[in-house]
Structures are given as C-alpha cells and as structure tokens.
C-alpha cells in the first residue's frame, strides 16, 4: 500500500519497475537477440542505406521504392545497423493491416535467413497495454491500433532508458488531418528518437499533408526514390504483361433504356464508360467477359505449373464480398472445380482476423487461387503470385499500381519470369497500364464504379426529359480476346495472339503460351510472318 499510486494507463506503463539510472546503465538491446541477414543487399538498398543512417534521428526520412523492391528487408537492415550501433533500443512499426504486420514479423524471424532477424510482437501475441519486455525489440502494429490506443504508444515511445525508432509502412495512409495521422503525431512527434517512412507508390500531398513526409509544391519529396523501370532494369522486379479482354456489354440504365456497347465503341460519355465497365465486372456467367479473364488466367497458371513453376498462383481482385462470393462460386463450378481461398471482410475491416488468417494460409500453401477484396493491394509479399485478374472497381492510379505490384516481386526459384495482369479493355485501365513504369508526382482523382447493394447510387439518365429512375441492371456480357502489351514496349493484337494459339497447337509446343509467343513475335518479323500465315486457318 505504501507504493500505491493513482496513474493513468500510459503513466503506469511508463513507470516500469526499474530505477532510471539502472535502465540507462544497461541501455541497448542484447546482441544475442539479433542476427544479421545472409542475403545480399540490392544496389538501391546499398545506395539508400548510408543516406538513411546519416539522417534518421535528425529529421524524419522518407524512402519511396516501387512494390516488390524490398522495402521490408531494407527497413530491417536499417534497424539492425541502428541497434547494433546503440543508437536505438526499441522499434515500433506501423502498418495498414494485420496481414502486412504478419509479413513484417515473418521477415524478421529466423525463418527468413535473408533479412536481419529480431524478436517483434504483433497483435496476435501482444496488446498495447502490456509492456515490451527485455526479450523483445518491439512490435508491429496497425494504424487502427495506434488510433485506438494512442496514449499507450506514447508511453512505449518514451519509455525511460529507451530510444525508439518508428517506421511508418505505406505512410500515405496517415494524413496529418486524418485520424490515423493525428494519432501518429500525438504518439511520436516528440517521443521517437527517429522516424523512417516507407512507401511503395508516389503520392501527392494536397490539403491534407502526410505526417512526417517532406513535400514541395504539394508533392511528396522522398529522400530516396527507386522507380519500377529501374527495378526492372536491375532485375529487382519482374516485368509485367497486360492481357486485355474485350467484348460486348448489355445493361438497362437508370432511364429504363437497354444499351448494348462494346469496348470498341468510342467515344462514350463518362457515365457510359462507367456503366460499361460496371457491367463487365458484375456479370459472372458462361461466356462473359469476367469468365474469359478467369479461364484464360487459369489456363496460364496451369501452363506455368506444367513447365516447372509448381506453386504458381493467381489473385482475383473483386469489388466487395458479395462479388467475391459469386466469383469464387463460379470458379468452383466452371473453372477450377473447387472453391478458391477467399480473403474478404464483411465488416469492411482490413484487420479482420478471418481474411488475415486466409492470407497466412495461402502464403504457405500450394493453392492456385485467392479471391480478395482490399486485402492484397499493398505491402503483402507472396512471391509465388504470377497473375492478377482485375475485377475491381478501384480505378485510380494509386490502387492500380498497388494491385499490379502484387505480381512484380522476384522469386529466387523462378528468376526468368514475368507477372501478368488480365483486365477489361477499359481505356482508363489501359492508359494506367501503359504508364506503369512512369513515376508521376501527381495522381488523378478517384474514379469509382457503382456496385449493387443498399448504398448503390441511383443516377438518373434523362435524355428526353422523362425521369424514370429505375435501378441499373446488367443483362449480360460476351467476352472476346483483346490485345496484349508489356513493360518492354512490345504489343500484339488479338489476331496475332489467335495465330500464336493455332501455331502452338499445330507444333504441340509446351514451353510457351499464346500471349508470350505473340509478344515475342512483335519484336521478330520472321516469327510474326510465320504466325500470321495461320490467320485464315481453322
């Protein structure tokens, strides 16, 4: 009772049970709890490392490296060097989702010999109200957890006798005027010994600046930037092939008129384009645009597995959980014969343990397909992913780059390969794909395609003055082969791809696929001529 004190939670946590002079005397994390990584750093990591080490602790540092470049390994290398030098003794990593937290913890574990290993908590075994004891360097937490218990993290960052490094992963989530950004400032602006922010996508800073991110003229200005085109040239990331699916869409618009349009019908109004894409995404039926994308992608996955890439896998990105369920059911009944892994939160919570556990299972399994909604758009490292089927209504450059980034990660087992994205032939998606290797400083405004549900937006089309305001309804789609192009600048039209398909069948080839062969022919006049000879054959 003599030691009874009335304290708030964070003050009680900060108080600890060791005298301050004892804590200071044993400052530093035990060296036997750390281990250097055996993997060789990439060129960009070797360039960025001395710059970051010289600046962190003096000012917030921002590093921007494209998806798949190795930001997590780089962050762990920075931590290892700082802890080894006695500059920091605690680490807090803040990430968008529980799935990404799992990835950081695995990367820092002894199961991954390439990166430095260090003991890190996650919410699976630790709560922010608990102390970080001497056997743990720190914790990986979500922005949502930081928002919910800001005071606790302030206590961890200012724990007597410790110097805390804070890493913000995908820092563009933390706007300075948004809840997550405000919490980050309250917890770490004065208490952290150093701040390192990481991002996989160039982002703009408008009225709501990003916390701890330097900017100039409204644009984020990283201390070090590593672009996708350079990553391809260095062999740090895979090149990507984009395969279009064209076809016809039929829908009843809000004015009650039935429209039938194809992706070749231009120009359309903005509303017409949105309705056409919405129909292509929503209709999951036999012969539809969506089914053709799924069938072609599955055929490609099977070909990769037959050629030795035995755990090659694909990702279908969907609109919402209802859409994902329809896609999964159709894949089971008509494409693969069993239900794929589904990662989706009906609570619209990216930290829902159910989809996070689905990701953990899929990462270590040999299942060929995962269907997801907003769960594998950024920061999730699954090197065996080779294919993305783009069935989502997220039509912004930021989202597009993040989704494409899931198939650009290199795999030591399959070094001579590429990623592939199947997408509807919507001109906005194609334009973003054509500029995927660019590094824009300013992103376009969001473009969303309305989906069914209680929150559906009922836009009235009033061409002749008579308002009917009926619900939008997709009546059907018919899919057909579109063109293909890649990040090397090669293009192949639908005719050339069909000729390549016939050539493969005639010659009984097993080491390629029609799209890859057609793209190869785009750079070889002799091969192109040989393929086009089959144009009129059946």
Main traits of this protein?
538 residues; alpha/beta; Rossmann fold; 2 domains; 9-stranded mixed sheet; 7-stranded parallel sheet; 35% helix; 18% strand; globular
Which structural category do the helix and sheet elements fall into? alpha/beta
First-last Cα distance: 92 Å
Q: What profile does the largest beta sheet have?
A: 9 strands, mixed
Q: Radius of gyration in whole Å, from Cα?
A: 25 Å
The helix content, as a percent range, equals 25-40%
CATH superfamily of the largest domain: P-loop containing nucleotide triphosphate hydrolases
Residues in β-strands, percent: 15-25%
Count of folded domains? 2
- State the low-pLDDT regions, or none: 17-27, 442-467
Could you walk me through the main structural features you see in this protein, from its secondary elements to its overall organization?
With 538 residues, the protein is of the alpha/beta class. It has 2 domains: 9-233, 3-Layer(aba) Sandwich (Rossmann fold); 238-489, P-loop containing nucleotide triphosphate hydrolases (Rossmann fold, 3-Layer(aba) Sandwich), CATH 3.40.50.300. It has helices spanning 9-15, 20-25, 43-55, 71-84, 98-107, 143-148, 150-157, 179-188, 228-234, 270-282, 289-306, 321-335, 353-364, 397-404, 427-434, 494-507, 514-522, 525-532; strands spanning 61-65, 90-95, 120-121, 138-142, 164-169, 194-199, 215-216, 219-220, 224-226, 240-252, 258-262, 313-317, 341-343, 369-372, 385-390, 419-424, 473-486, 491-492. The strands form 3 sheets. Strands 10, 11, 12, 13, 14, 15, 16, 17 and 18 form a 9-stranded mixed beta sheet that branches. Strand 7 and strand 8 (219-220) form a beta hairpin. Helix 1 packs parallel to helix 7 (150-157), helix 3 (43-55) crosses helix 4 (71-84) and helix 17 packs across helix 18 (525-532). The chain is globular, with a radius of gyration of 25 Å. The N and C termini lie far apart (92 Å).
